[in-house]
Design goal:
Length: 508
């Protein structure tokens, strides 16, 4: 029925437990993410360690549970030994991936201190580009072994006698990409990843390893790269990585031209996002069967975001090139909300996800020396991270469809929901994708009604391109709205066009 949708929730009909690690971030040595982003000793807002206290507070609000580091493309040329020891003795080098100068003033110890302050689980990527499998194992020794060996003693000498116990380890990054330092064929990569994983596990049997999937669905190798790598490495990995970026206008495959602006298609891009996850989930099942394995491998969606419009940089080798500083708008926030809905709907296969990235570089936070502001995408990310927990519910939705050029007919309403059985904290996330049509949504709890609706927030507006800035930091935010009235096990809510709404419920 035009203008009307029905959502049915049943606390017994669930997808899976939600892994808290799907609310993760990514901090790469790139542009102004680390330097001038999280670490900025020259700023009046820096603490005694050089960490930006305003940035730290905003990152804490988002409640990131895992943080990938140090890259990205950067890691494929990174020598981790450059980043340890007295700061004044650390070398400066050209970081070839991003045409910048790496000062190494922020390295493994500084990252661990940052992660501990943030209360987030570190996820380290090892260099399988220029790096050897021995370098990878040495890094595990440095980070995780009790003292008594060369690298663990060096860690103690550098001020940290206790092992850091880093659990999650990415076996390289996007090794299929022609842009990657040390690009490889799938077979070659899988074999190197397996050898690295073996050595790393012999150092510390408690670690979890993550193999690289192909870098994008537009890559010629997708999804064969994924199939080959999964089949050859299945016994040695715990997670399989996937990356997905999109934008309006869509980039062409070569990323040198732009297709025309198409907001309807863009707002439906979670359809493509979801297909990507389904394809890789099928490749995982196939690899499991071929390996006659009883173990599960899960998806680690360790790079996802809206990207591709901003390039920047003046081509000079600098420590903090202003590259990839995307400015996000309302439609981007709505797209991010639909992708987060996808994570909940795919909670059975997606167990780690990291938004790329956390500050300045394609990120929810933008800084300058004396200030920062929260971009539009900060709000859906933070609402999901703080309210989606427990079980993902398998939601039944009846909604009008709308036509799109890229994805055909798609539902006007995109929904996910969660419920924490122990605390009774529930949440429903609703995106009205239409640019013009409001929607009345009837929510029905089929088995047990919530005791009450607790809170409600909404992001909406007439202009999909409205954005925040240093001058107008709160132009587009998620604002609290009056909590709709619960009528037994039913509630009716009106969703304006171009809107994202979060409702929280209490079931106890
Ligand atoms: O997040 C930016 C870059 O995107 C990463 O360095 C790389 O892995 C991907 O291509």
């Amino acid at each position: 029925r035009p203008g009307h949708a029905t959502v049915r929730l049943n606390t017994q009909r669930t997808v899976s437990e939600i892994s808290p690690l799907i609310f993760g971030g990514f901090a790469e040595h790139m542009g102004r993410c680390i330097y001038e982003g999280i670490y900025d000793p020259a700023s009046p807002l820096a603490d005694e360690r050089g960490f930006r206290s305003d940035v730290m507070a905003a990152l804490k609000e988002t409640n990131y549970r895992i943080m990938r580091y140090p890259g990205g493309n950067f890691v494929s040329g990174y020598r981790w030994t450059d980043g340890i020891g007295p700061r004044e003795q650390r070398p400066r080098r050209r970081a070839l991936a991003w045409r910048s100068i790496e000062s190494n003033q922020f390295g493994p110890h500084e990252f661990m201190e940052f992660a501990q302050e943030l209360g987030t689980e570190p996820m380290w990527a090892v260099n399988l580009g220029t790096g050897s499998i021995q370098d990878a194992a040495d890094l595990v020794e440095y980070m995780n072994l009790p003292t008594g060996t060369l690298y663990s003693d060096l860690r103690a000498k550098n001020g940290h006698p206790d092992p850091y116990g880093v659990k999650y380890w990415c076996l390289g990054n996007e090794m299929d990409g022609p842009w990657q330092i040390g690009q490889m064929e799938a077979v070659e990569y899988a074999d190197k990843a397996v050898q690295a994983a073996k050595l790393m596990r012999w150092m510390d049997p408690g670690i979890k390893t993550i193999a690289c999937g192909s870098s994008a669905t537009s890559m010629p190798g997708y999804p064969d790269w994924d199939r080959v790598v999964l089949e050859r490495s299945y016994a040695h990995i715990d997670y399989f990585s996937m990356h997905h970026y999109a934008a309006n206008p869509y980039p062409t495959i070569s990323n040198t031209e732009r297709l025309p602006i198409d907001t309807d298609s863009y707002l439906a891009s979670s359809v493509h996002f979801e297909e990507h996850a389904d394809t890789l989930a099928a490749a995982i099942r196939l690899a499991k069967a071929k390996n006659r394995s009883k173990r599960d491998v899960h998806l680690c969606w360790d790079e996802w975001n809206v990207w591709y419009r901003a390039k920047g940089g003046d081509g000079e080798w600098s420590e903090t090139p202003h590259i990839l500083e995307e400015q996000y708008n309302l439609e981007d926030a709505l797209v991010v909300a639909t992708w987060l809905n996808t994570f909940l709907r795919k909670a059975d296969v997606v167990k780690i996800a990291c938004i790329a990235q956390i500050v300045n570089v394609i990120a929810p936070i933008m800084t300058r020396t004396d200030a920062m502001y929260k971009q539009t995408i900060f709000y859906p990310l933070t609402l999901f991270s703080n309210h989606a927990s427990g079980e993902a519910l398998d939601v039944l939705v009846q909604a009008p469809t709308q036509d799109t050029n890229r994805h055909g007919p798609v539902p006007q309403l995109d929904v996910s929901a969660s419920l924490e059985p122990d605390t009774g904290h529930g949440a429903v996330f609703l995106v009205n994708r239409s640019q013009t049509e409001a929607l009345t949504v009837d929510l029905h709890w089929e088995d047990v009604a919530p005791r009450e609706l607790a809170q409600a927030w909404q992001m909406s507006g007439a202009d999909p391109f409205a954005a925040n800035s240093f001058e107008q930091p709160d132009h587009v935010t998620a604002r609290p709205i009056p909590v709709p009235t619960l009528d037994g096990a039913h509630v009716s809510i009106s969703l304006p066009p171009l809107s994202f709404t979060t409702l929280t419920t209490r079931h106890q």
